[in-house]
Write a structure and sequence with these properties.
about 40% helix, binds flavin mononucleotide, 10 helices, Rossmann fold, alpha/beta
Length: about 180
């Protein structure tokens, strides 16, 4: 099995989940990351919450899940900065076209983009979207910028997409994402 031999022991992975159909696969990714030995905390965008609940990620990660920058309890101690410092790697999966654009241009307008800007941990993005969104020159230019800055890009894979079409845009399989992460 692709990810089974990857050891992520000692790694603290901040998984940022964005609002794409593949958000449900991020729950399996949490399981696979933990199986590989990583500690995982999850942050979600507002759009991600339309696809899967925070309770799912809390259950699979065994950790509280952050869904907003504006959480008075967590932010009394600047929780987002704490979380950004805690991470030894940030993985954005699924990474939407929207969030990729924001990350490429240094936006910090929600919890996920703020965490990504506030951390010095290496960044892995796992794009997932409609193939036309993926092939759009704007998305490709954003990806090129992120790559230039050292971000690791895993996927997307080619194949059937949620809309009944086919092409590049499927989220890489959770096992393939785990296998791609540096030990
Ligand atoms: C049903 C549905 C499915 C969507 N799937 C995707 C997707 O797979 N990838 C993507 O980039 N955007 C997708 N979108 C659009 C995003 O949800 C939208 O751009 C949103 O602003 C993303 O916000 P976020 O990047 O903050 O999570 C979808 C929208 C809807 C309504």
């Amino acid at each position: 099995m692709a990810g089974a031999s990857t050891s992520l022991h000692g790694q603290r992975i901040l998984l940022c989940v964005c609002g794409g159909i593949a958000a449900y696969k991020a729950a399996e990714l949490v399981r696979r990351l933990r199986d590989a030995g990583a500690q995982v905390r999850v942050a979600m965008t507002d759009s991600a919450l339309h696809f899967v609940s925070a309770a799912t990620f809390q259950a699979v990660s065994g950790e509280p899940v952050r869904t907003t920058l504006w959480d008075p309890g967590a932010e009394a101690a600047m929780g987002h900065i704490e979380l950004a410092r805690w991470a030894t790697r940030v993985v954005v999966a699924p990474a939407t076209a929207n969030t990729l654009a924001k990350l490429a241009h240094g936006f910090a307008d929600n919890l996920v983009t703020t965490l990504c800007l506030a951390t010095t941990a290496p960044l892995t993005v796992c794009p997932a979207m409609n193939h036309r969104m993926w092939l759009h020159p704007a998305t490709q230019a954003n990806l090129a910028l992120l790559r230039e800055r050292g971000a690791q890009v895993v996927g997307p894979e080619d194949g059937p997409l949620a809309e009944g079409e086919s092409g590049p845009g499927r989220l890489a399989e959770p096992t393939a994402i785990v296998a791609a992460l540096p030990a």
